[in-house]
Amino acid sequence: MRLLGLALLGLIPACQSDETVAAYGASGVTWTLVSQNGAPFAARATLVFGEDGQVSGQAPCNRFTFTNTLPYPWFETGPIAATKVACPDLEAEDAFFQTVGAMTRVVLGDDGMVMANDAGGEMVFTASE
């Protein structure tokens, strides 16, 4: 009986579900940045939340990926891997990467997604096709 109990305890981690933002409605949606720190974001940047905490997207110039494994509503980027293509929007891209790297929370709502941090930083996204 004791061995059965230990065997069942070993299965508990396998039964736990995804607790990241993807599991709370963000998965399978392309999120387009509309404003950053209270100002409209003129360039185009997107986020896509995938399985196992994978996040990818298109910054103004480059594709990127990182992992967020924190439980919802918490958020962190971890190291960001990005392609290295130059374009006229590199300044907007740098600002995007710095800001998304500073976000610590995500809130999903009917009208979109908001990322924020304790320093007052904010990114507002809408779902796009």
From TrEMBL:
Provenance organism: Tateyamaria armeniaca
Pfam family, one: META
Protein name, as recorded: META domain-containing protein
Highest taxon of source: Bacteria
Residues covered by the DUF306 domain: 27-124
